[in-house]
Batch of 2 targets.
Target 1
Amino acid sequence: MTDKKNIMEYETVALDDNETSVVIIDQTLLPGRTQLIHLKTAEEIWDAIYLLKVRGAPAIGVAAAFGIYILAKGIDTQDYAAFYKELVKQKEYLNSSRPTAVNLSWALNRMEEVCRTNEKLPVALIKEKLREEAIAIKEEDIWVCKKIGEYGLDLVKPGDGILTHCNAGQLATSKYGTATAPIYLGQERGYNFHVFADETRPLLQGARLTAYELQSSGVDVTLICDNMSAAVMRNGWINAVFVGCDRVAANGDVANKIGTSVVAAVAKRYNIPFYVCAPTSTIDRNTKTGDDIHIEQRPAEEVTEMWYKERLTPEGVKVFNPAFDVTDHELITAIVTEYGIARAPFAQSLQEIFEKSREM
Ligand code: MRU
């Protein structure tokens, strides 16, 4: 289906009315075409995540949770052991689609846990519990992003220039985005930010998605190429950098879209605060430092052809195409979560955030 509604009116991830498929916007076609696609099989869900039709750490978690619910519905047995075995197989398969964003395994683990803790129930009721859990994961994501927006808004003032990298916007979450949440909440309150969106090579999530959703929301946004961030910072146009992230290690090192660490280093050079917006679901206390984060390597064609299906580079040239990089915690001013703002020393402040989350 192709449609002409404002992009902000769409849900990034949803169930269809009959609950037989996961509905997403094919983000590889944006902004040119808004096409909704229905994912029914495990392969369709896996492909959609791997091919970045749905992308962004929280959104792939929600897509996988809905995906597992749809796949669980199709498991044709009343026997708990057989049901559980098949569910875990599907879960592991979906989890193999992308390695860096921890939200994917976090959401899938929550779904598996629901299955395990309800093992005494009939399989039909376990399926109902899985449905409730998937919907809860999505609803929590909306609440989480809004809270991040509220905390983030305290770090800036009306009229500020804000730079962001990649897309940690509504299209990467269920609503508001993470890095864009302070921008959207500020917009509602008349803050009139001037946002600079890095294009984000090689797949242009900043140019195609962030610039699109901010512009569609009436935010003053200027698109820049990745190699222009130092120039706008040196010009004095940037008061703060907000980025999202795919995994936060226990020491505060952060993996986010490739190029993020360059922006952080340049921000440090110009004394501009660098804020990482992270739901607690993105914090992985089992990963000690950034060195332990598995960085996804993507096909060379993303660099050599992009989507042109025609070579833009010399035949046979070697390509290095990591999807993410690690920003060292020394470059990060603060990590903004739904339970408050963590600052150095991060090992301690992130632990305090977790303690707070357990009290709520
Ligand atoms: O490869 P992508 O497009 O999934 O990368 C997305 C990012 O790096 C985002 O910044 C991150 O997932 C946070 S989304 C709120």
Target 2
Amino acid sequence: TLRACIFDLDGVIVDTAKFHYQAWKTLAHGLGFDFTEHDNERLKGVSRMRSLEIILEIGQQTLPEDQKLALATRKNEAYLEDVHRMTEADVLPGVRRFLEECRAAGLKTALGSASKNARLILDRVNLLPLFDAIVDGTDVANAKPDPEVFLKGAEALGVEPTHCVVFEDAVAGLEAARNGGMHCVGVGDVTILAEADFVIPGFEDMTVARLQELEVC
Ligand code: B16
Ligand code: MG
């Protein structure tokens, strides 16, 4: 039986990837190279510092640790300017309704995100009250595909992993769910997320009844 839904943030609840992309692109241009939307795919679900390392690899640059920290901080400040402009309208279609439906059906809800800004973002879009637990980049030591973020979410909810389903837009996130012994639903492109139990394009047509019909748990 299904008892809990655990959601990734970026790419599932909100599309903050476009803000990350703009901020990283500006940083890359400042260092004298370009960073494309195609390159940006590699940053999905990846931590801030690891993202910076990938970008420096693309630009074939090596920098000392203190400069890397300064760059990551500056990128985050630029990114947060966009986050502060977010409103309820930035929640992806169907997500708020689906979260409300989960809770009405007695399912627990948790967030499992690599972002250190997760609470701030949920507050901006007014979704904090719809989550029973939040586990984010400030709570975990190991990045997805390590299952830590989702296992901590399940633990905070008091639900066994086998009774949890994870919603993820990144392959590493689906692997994290699997590694934690959880079911997983891919949100996005079926050709990329083929290893999920099933894939939905978004939450517009998603219902708790459909989730139970599919008998993922
Ligand atoms: P921050 P998710 C991830 O969020 C993003 O997909 C990834 O692009 C970003 O680098 C990471 O959060 C860290 O974000 O700089 O805010 O700590 O998909 O795990 O919700
Ligand atoms: Mg994501």
